[in-house]
Amino acid sequence: MTINKQPVEQKRLFVYIETEVQFDAIMPLLIHLRDVRKISFDIIVPVDENGENMEIYNETAKLIQRSGFKIERGILDRIKKRKYQILLSSYIYNWLYNEIKAKYFIQYAYGSYYFNKPNWTVDRLLTGEYMADAVLSHAVGTQDAVNVVSKSYITPELRFSDFRKKVRKNGEKPTLFFVTTYNDMAFAVRLLEVVDELKKKYRLIFHGHHRAVHVHANKELTERLYDKADRVYDSEQTMKAPLEDADIVLSDNSSAFLEAISVGIPVALFSRNLNAFKYREINAIQYDLVQNGDILWTDDPKKLLRILDQTLTGPMLKRQSEMSAKLFPEKFSDPVGRYMEILDIYLEDKLPPEYHLVKKYWVERINGLVIGNDEKRDRIEYLESEMASLLGIGRSARLLASNIKRHIMKGEKGNR
């Protein structure tokens, strides 16, 4: 008897999106894939019921749907059964590699991908069980470093492909865009110590970071800052709008300061620890830029006005213009076309058989090392547990011996 097997459903791309900014980074590409190339894809937004990320994921899902795309919530069984040519995600998590049937895994950047937080980006590159087949990045300066573990391609920042700086009218105050990350909101609110002085000279704007506005622990601090703003751009809006409105950007360790540099907006830094996110000997890029004199930094609110004013002087503007050209030298006349040029390599299987064999051997080796490390870790934990038990027994034995000795001595005194 012949059994007719159900064909495995195939789609060309699996697109995993966790945040609004990750969607903004590739929305023009997704529109092109859907409307021009007619390439099928699934967009998956995770679920985190009652967890810290629940609001972030839910707001991201709403934004994508309002933009005219269908989505799936979570990794459903029918998704696991499908075969994809490419998995496209900002992070290649180990569980994605293990659960999704994709031939190629491609990581795209939603920031510059310079190492402003190498303790995260470099660590992810080195500790993953599987490396991406390709990393799409705007950062020429770290391309060689990424190439050590994965093929890296330089791509344009799609959000800024039609960037147009707003022109100020005579007599208008320059606009200060304070960009905060979520890592140290307790320090960021120290801006309030001098906010009234700053606003005498600057118009103050903010843009909602998804982890600053949607995570409960940061909401109260974020609202205190926003109450002093002349304008707050919603987290659903791309970074393009506030950058077009800005004359100078003040940032803590957020990667947004690199986006400002890429479009030619002057930058100053205000953070507790400029090198808080270094990885071993690899400094955060902002630390090196400050050491080189390309960017001014302070951790003292009372010095903010001085470094802002100094950043807008002729010598610093010239220096930062040269820095921008050095960090982001690549210009693309067809930004979406550049992405498609790269994706077509993988969509059309243009890589030789040797590539797939070496990748297979590499994954086997990495998984072997991980399994070996897990076994060693389990053995160490077991030995530590045994040692703790032995120490506990030793302490009990010493306590028992001490009590016996004390009782014997009491008995001897009573018999005298």
In words, what does this structure look like?
- The structure is a single chain.
- With 416 residues, this protein is an alpha/beta fold.
- The chain has two domains: 10-156 and 334-351, Glycogen Phosphorylase B (Rossmann fold); 175-327, Glycogen Phosphorylase B (Rossmann fold, 3-Layer(aba) Sandwich).
- Helix content is 47%, strand content 15%.
- It contains 17 helices and 13 strands.
- It has a seven-stranded parallel sheet. The protein has a six-stranded parallel sheet with strand order 10-9-8-11-12-13, with helices on both faces.
- Helix 13 (285-291) links the parallel strand 12 (267-270) and strand 13 (296-298).
- The longest helix is centred in the last third of the chain and has 63 residues, at 353-415.
- The protein is globular and about 60 Å long.
- The model has no long low-confidence stretch (mean pLDDT 84).
Brief synopsis:
By secondary structure, this protein is of the alpha/beta class. It is built from 17 helices and 13 strands.
Helix-strand blueprint:
Elements: E1 10-16, H1 20-35, E2 41-45, H2 54-66, E3 72-73, H3 77-81, E4 83-89, H4 94-99, E5 101-108, H5 118-127, E6 134-137, H6 143-147, E7 151-154, E8 175-179, H7 185-188, H8 195-199, E9 203-207, H9 210-213, H10 216-226, E10 231-233, H11 240-245, E11 248-251, H12 256-262, E12 267-270, H13 285-291, E13 296-298, H14 304-311, H15 314-327, H16 335-347, H17 353-415
Parallel strand pairs: 1-2, 1-4, 2-3, 4-5, 5-6, 6-7, 8-9, 8-11, 9-10, 11-12, 12-13
